[in-house]
Amino acid sequence: MQKPVEKEWDLTIGPDTVRLLALKARAISAALSDDYVDGQEHEIEIDGDAGDRHQHDGLAEEEEENLTEEEFRELIADLNVDEAAELIAIAWIGRGDYEPAEWADAVGEARQHNGKRVATYLLGMPMLGDWLDAGLDALTVA
C-alpha cells in the first residue's frame, strides 16, 4: 500500500473566500471600460429623426462596477498578512509562475508586497478570477 503524499501547505485563507474574490474579480473585469461614453459610437441611430428613446441610466452600471471593486478592496483589506500573501501566491500558481510544490517559495515572495497595495496589485492581473480558481484547484488537487 502506497503512503499518501503529504501536502506541504496548509491554507490560512479559506477556499470559499478565494472563490468569492474570484467571482468579484470576474465581475470587475466584465464591467464596462472607463472609456465608454453613453450615446456615442456604441449606439446605432436608424435615421436623423429617430433616436434611442430608451431611458438608459449609465450611472447604475457605473455604481455597480464601483461597488464591486469597492467590495473587493474591502475584502482584501480585511485579510491578515498571511491570508493576503497566500492569495497572491494562489494567483501566481494559477498563472503558472509557481508549481504547487513551490508553495512556500511563492508565499515567501508574496509577503514582500505592501499590504496596502495588495488589492491594486491583484486587480492589475487581467485574468485574476481564472487564475485564483486555477491556483486553488491546483493546490487542493495536488
Automatic annotation (TrEMBL):
Pfam family, one: DUF3775
Ranges for region Disordered: 48-67
Lineage: superkingdom: Bacteria
Listed Basic and acidic residues bias regions: 48-59
InterPro entries membership: DUF3775
The protein's name in its UniProt record: DUF3775 domain-containing protein
Organism: Nitratireductor pacificus pht-3B
